[in-house]
Amino acid sequence: MQRYTKRQEHFFNTVLKYSPNREDTMRNFPLLASIDYRDYSRFIHHMVMSLPHVTIQNIIYKIEWEKDQFNVSAYIDDLSESNIIQLIGKDEIKAACVINIVAYELEKRLRPEMGKLHVSLLDTQRIRQHFANIQFMQQLIKKPPCGKDSTEPDYLEYELIETTKVISNIEEELKVAKDREKSLLNVGLFVCKHFNKKLPFTIQWPDYSIVVSLDNILLVERK
Q: Which residues form a coiled coil (predicted)?
């Protein structure tokens, strides 16, 4: 049986304490324990990434690490500048955690299987295709009936009614996607500005890097 250091055991117990899925945490722990967690940001990163089932809209982590203690509460849907200031103050460790949560949200959006979002990039593509299908259906409806006995117009009219029902939902989904994109971008830019970081600002992690520019947040995976 593999033996762990006190530091590793402390990390494991901390993660396990706040993990809603003990089996997943225990299964992933040998891999997590192989990483050097002397760096706070790396510790936070792997803690966040090791809990893919945690709902990102309501993350509350209480991390106890050696002599330092702090609470991090982040609500992605309402991360205004005033909330961020109140959340992180001048503490770069807390800022690192906020950035990690943003990165995790991006990761989930790029890999929908890691968690459920209102809208992922794949969903956006699907929605656009659905709009194209609706437009095509509307064009068919405008065509004259093929014949008096034909059932095609009735069928097409039914399809149009059914597809029209979801238009409002789709528009709402697109709005959520756009707002979320803006929210993530604002968080990244503000954190950089808050600590006088120059743009583009790159955050390096073991698995990927995050490049924050004036235009967007780019998540770059390492090969």
A: 160-187
> Taking the alpha carbons of 134, 140, 143, 144 in that order, is the dihedral positive or negative?
negative
Cβ partners under 8 Å of residue 49, min gap 6: 104, 107, 207
Calpha distance 18→22 (Å, rounded):
9
Local structure of 209: helix, strand or coil: strand
| Torsion angles phi and psi, residue 217, rounded to 5 | -110, 120
**What is the β-pairing status of strands 59-65 and 201-204?**
unpaired
Q: Tell me 163's DSSP state.
A: H
Total residues belonging to the chain = 223
pLDDT in tens, 175-219: 555 555 555 555 555 555 555 555 565 655 445 555 655 555 454
220 Cβ partners below 8 Å, 6+ apart? 208, 209, 210, 211
